[in-house]
Amino acid sequence: MPLAERIKARLRALDSRAVMVIGLAFFAFGTALTLILFGSAWLALEGEGDVASMIASVDDPILAPLAVILVYVGLGALGAPQFLLQAAAIVVFGPWLGFAYAWGATLVSSSVFYWAGHFSGAQALRRFAGVRVNSISEALGRHGILASAVSRVVPTMPFVILNMAFGASHVSFTKFLIGTGLGTIPKVAVVAYVGASLGDFLASRDPMDLALMACIIVLWIVFAWWVRRALKRSGWQKAVDDAVDAPESGPSK
C-alpha cells in the first residue's frame, strides 16, 4: 500500500478524542509559539514602561515566584490554558528561570484547587462542574499517581475542574503532588526548549535551530498520542472518557 494511503488509513482509524488531542496539541503549541515570538511586543508599554522595567518590578527572589503563583491561581480559576501560562513565564523570565517558576507555580496552583475540591466536597463540586464529575473523580481516584501524571500530558478536562476532581476523589495529596510534579516536567520543558530554540533561530537564522524545534514539537505530539493510546488499552482512559461523556444523571443541587 502506498505511503499516502497508509497515512489516510491511520487517520481514519483515529477516534474523535485522539484527533482532539492532536488538534489541541497543535493549537497549544501554535499559541505558545506566538506568545513567545510576539510576547515582548504585546507586553510593551509607552514611554519608560517597557518589558524590561516591568520584569525589573518583579525581579526579586521572593516577589517574582509569588507573582507567578498568583497569576497561575487567578487565571487558572478562569480556565486559562496551562500552555499559555507556561509560555508567558518563559517570555518574561527566560527558559531556565521561566521553567522553574512555571513548574513551581503549576504545583502550587494545582494544590490550591485540589484542596478546594477536597474541602468543598463532592456535592459542591457537582454544583460547579455537573453531576458527572462524581464518575470522573472515581475514575481518577483508582489510579493515584499515574492518573495525576498522565492527565498533565493528555488533555481531559479544564485544569481547575481536573484538580478539584482529584481533591474530591480518594487520591491522597502526596500522590497527587508527585504525579502532578512528574507529569508537568516534560510539558514545561518542551515549552522552555521551544522558546529557547526560537530565540536562537531568530538570532542566528540557522535552519538547524528551526528543524530541531519542529522535531521536538512533533515528538511531543506523538508522545501525547502514544500515552493516550496506551491508557486506552489499559482501560483507564476509557473510564475517564465514559465519565466525561456520560449524560447528567440528575439536576445538581
UniProtKB/TrEMBL annotation:
Entry similarity comment: Belongs to the TVP38/TMEM64 family.
Ranges for domain VTT: 81-196
A Pfam family found in this protein is VTT_dom
> What are the alphabetically sorted keywords of the record?
Cell membrane, Membrane, Transmembrane, Transmembrane helix
Can you say what this protein is called?
Answer: TVP38/TMEM64 family membrane protein
Which InterPro entries is this protein grouped with?
TMEM64, VTT_dom
Q: Major location, coarse class?
A: membrane
